[in-house]
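Sample pair:
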Amino acid sequence: MLRLFPVYLFLLSLPLFTSTAMAAQTKSLDLLTVQTRPVAEERILDAVIEAVNKATVSAQTTGRVTKINFDVDDFVVKGDILLRMRDREQRARFNAAKARYVEAEAEYQRVKEVHAKKLVARSQLDKAEARLKSAKAEMEQAQESLENTIVRAPYSGIVVKRYIEVGETARVGKPLFTGLSLESLRAVVNLPQDMIAVVRKLKRARLISETDANPESIAAESIIISPYADPTSHTFLLRVNLPPGQHGLYPGMAVKVAFVTREVNKLLAPITAVARRSEVSAVYVMDKDGRISMRQVRLGRKFNNDQVEILAGLDAGEQIARDPLAATVYLKEQNNRQHSGSTL
């Protein structure tokens, strides 16, 4: 009996040792408590991308085109020189106007000094001042005409049309280029009349780009709603303005726009915490005794690209493992400990 006493003490201490070891393992396993959170319910509609800034650059002076620097599908930066015209006539006109201005300014200064000595009448000073203003206006007009022989991009964007060739004469008003900016885009949506009230109230939307396997979500910067519905389709024309910048989108592309209709509480979990086995989705749940088990769950839709809705299989307040791989290792060690304990 005395010889069995140490073994008996060891067997009594085994469950305590196991619980302590499991508690230590629990601390090493990264857990999180799932909770319900308010999320936005959305309704998704089809939309088309269009450019906010689209314009045709026309000739502001007459001249023969000597050089064209860009063509269709070229990207231009604001201020880039699109083309140059022969400027001999405009430069000669500017030089002549500048000479007349210098002469008129010298004459005005001379008359002003003489008038200050009360040697000429005020009317002569007024005439000299009027000639100076006229000469200045003529010089500025000639300078503008000279500058217009160099056609620059009004904003950064892409050339979509070119209407002239080198050697042709561009006359005032003749279209030269049509371009659009990819920095300022918007999505155009035909909004059903049953949604108009909630969209006007909340004005929350996001664009969903489906250009690749990982759709991008872009929050709307602003929403502009037509004040009246189309009498045939009974829909409201709506423009969803995107934040400035390159989004990999081009005018004419088909996209989706999700409009917030209300906020509800949903049970969410990180997508990375969900283990997938064939068509089964599961999470590793830790019970109050520090034991972990794999539990099947039914998933809903994703939120913010990193959270997923849990429709069934999990309750708020339960703890799950953040890393399914680490939880698998933990579960294997837990089973080994239980097997060793039952053998002893």
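The radius of gyration is 38 Å.
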